[in-house]
Specification:
The structure is a homodimer.
Chain A (H helix, E strand, L loop, with lengths): L1 H20 L1 E7 L5 E7 L2 E2 L5 E6 L3 H8 L2 E8 L4 E12 L2 H7 L17 E15 L4 H13 L8 E5 L3
Antiparallel strand pairs in A: 1-2, 1-5, 3-4, 4-7, 5-6, 6-7, 7-8
Chain lengths: ~170, ~170
């Protein structure tokens, strides 16, 4: 029971961090174990902690996914000091109903034909492992907090980081 | 000559983008080709386009570097729509003079003993390949710019992206 509560809290935290940063560097490995990253906007984090994206079915990314479905999603927001590294496996899904559920007009900036675009599809990333760093404060603030802690003889709390238990 | 000018401009652009974002997700591959990423603050981009970092000589990252010196640096700032993916090779360097040159008091937040810390060392990443995306506008702005362009019958400029020629 305690485990389920922990898991639910972690999925919520994961969702909050991910959707706050929004755009990740979606990272795949090619045949020669070279990394390929490209920015992608997150359409949704569902109740199980899976991340969903819209993409173009025929893009290079999809070719790489079909060879090896291991991916890393890197969410990074230096201004807010939020960093999340997500390991997962992904699949391409063509599901009209789910697409309608996740579609927002802002996506027209990338897919001008909208839901009528025959190349439009969804990528679902099942998260296996998520590690986050959230310092809550900027580098300078962290520095001054540390100095203040030293002056008061207190232990400096560096911020929060850890593995999220998503399943 | 034109090539050199192009290269100098690209190194300057690379430096500007990297130092603006500052913190990257420093990504290494372990023995099983699993990716490991952790946030790291960039100490310097030098005149040749190499990126320098301070680190703890005995950290896990250094172990991974010593097995396979290929790394990826992922700089990502969703608020400013700047994304840079850097492929490179890295080496650990213990160079007292260079450390003094790159040291700033803010680093005390991570290395309280400063330059006297015997575990302190430098990591130099020689960049082999850098690809950037810089949309200059937020997602919402991009969307409205696109709509405005359509209304005026103009081609919508999505932003700037491309490979940087650093060497």
């Amino acid at each position: 029971m305690e485990n389920i509560i922990h898991q639910e809290e972690d999925v919520k935290k994961f969702k909050d961090l991910i959707m706050y940063v929004d755009v990740c560097m979606f990272t795949t490995l090619d045949d020669n174990y070279k990394l390929h990253s490209r920015p992608m906007s997150t359409a949704q984090v569902d109740g199980e902690g899976n991340a969903w994206f819209f993409t173009n079915e025929f893009s290079e990314k999809i070719n790489e996914i079909s060879r090896d479905n291991a991916v890393n999603l890197i969410y990074s927001d230096p201004a807010k000091n939020i960093y999340v590294n997500v390991k997962g496996t992904c699949t391409m899904i063509i599901d009209r109903k789910k697409m309608e559920e996740l579609w927002t007009p802002v996506l027209k900036a990338w897919f001008p034909d909208g839901l009528d675009d025959p190349k439009l599809c969804l990528v679902k990333v099942v998260t296996e492992d998520a590690y986050f760093w959230n310092n809550k404060a900027s580098k300078m603030t962290a520095y001054f907090n540390m100095l203040a802690a030293i002056e008061k003889g207190e232990k400096y709390e560096e911020g929060e980081s850890g593995k999220l238990q998503l399943s």
